[in-house]
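idk why but the lab printer keeps eating my pages so im just putting this in chat instead. protein + KG4:
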Amino acid sequence: MITLSIETSCDDTALSIIKTSSSKKMDYSNFEVLSNLTTSQIEAHKPYGGVFPAVAKREHQSALVPLLIKSLKKANLLKEAKIIDSKKISRIKKNLEKNEDLFLQLKEFLTKYQLKDINKIAVTIGPGLEPCLYTGINLAKSLSYYYNIPVVGVNHLEGHILSSFLSPNEKLELPAIALIVSGGNTQLIYFEKIGKYKIIGETRDDAAGECFDKTARILGLDYPGGPEISKKAKDCKTNKHNIVLPRPMINEKNYDFSFSGLKTAVLYHTRKNKINDDYVKEMSFEIESAIVDVLVSKTLKAVDEYGVKSLLLGGGVTANQKLIKEFKKKTKVRLFIPHKKYTGDNALMIGLVSIYSPNVKKIIKPISNLKINE
Ligand code: KG4
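predcted complex ->
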């Protein structure tokens, strides 16, 4: 069984091709990654200091087909087309009216190549930015329609949860708590078994990654803010400004988070001070400490109170070394941290969910009248 998976929920265009044996057990020995590629849009979003949805959609449209060709080549599955179905191509054209750039490249692909060996297509259907999600879904549905391959929809967050399985030497014991922290999400999830999850807490406003990005912007740092703040915090050697930021909701008796107040506190403090390198480093140190303190404290409280056996981390913010260090120091249960290349958005996690989770949905709702696999 060969699965092509597509992830376009935010600012990464990602495709993956996985080969699976017949076993349903999620285990490294049961799947082979034939290709796993991501094109980042970071440069395109830098001027905006965050992800700009219209730009993200445009970038996905231009990146998807070249990435598909590259992926198939890498997996040794790129084959020349034998027949061209012009009727189907014009139907796809009609249905990709809002993805014209994608259509033009796709048309060229369909006339040149074929997807003979792909048995299934998996695509992220949310949560994420709608114009971005639709670009990936439209590609999935067009390929599905043209080559008659089934297409299934996958939840992005479930992908991040299952990313923790991508550490080949560890054995996950359930139940577990999963902390998913990215630019768009901050959630604590009780993970009973594959396919069964309960959100026990989430952010009431900004996501933790968003807080890193927005406070970095206030300090004049580049996007994405997380790695920039982290770098500055690491270089911090002074404490001239005595900065103390709040740790929002850290002592509340629930598992929710709130990061917008932290951002406002940084804004007000920075307005009153002269921004120089020492100030930026000290403020970065305090921002990172505040976010890490809140995430670690609330997550470990959930681990204790739910009496779970493992803790999983997922999402772009879990690339943060201070966060990892704190969790390693304080976690009493097994800790699962995805490899750095799987902490951010990737398509491999989407493919894995489509193979191993009972939650996958067959896409039956046509996006723009293209009735595929109904
Ligand atoms: O999961 P992801 O790649 O994309 C989505 O948001 O969906 O996460 C990106 C987020 C950004 O907000 C970025 O600033 C943050 O992850 N991030 C970090 C680090 N690396 C990326 N935050 C803190 N420390 C890092 N080292």
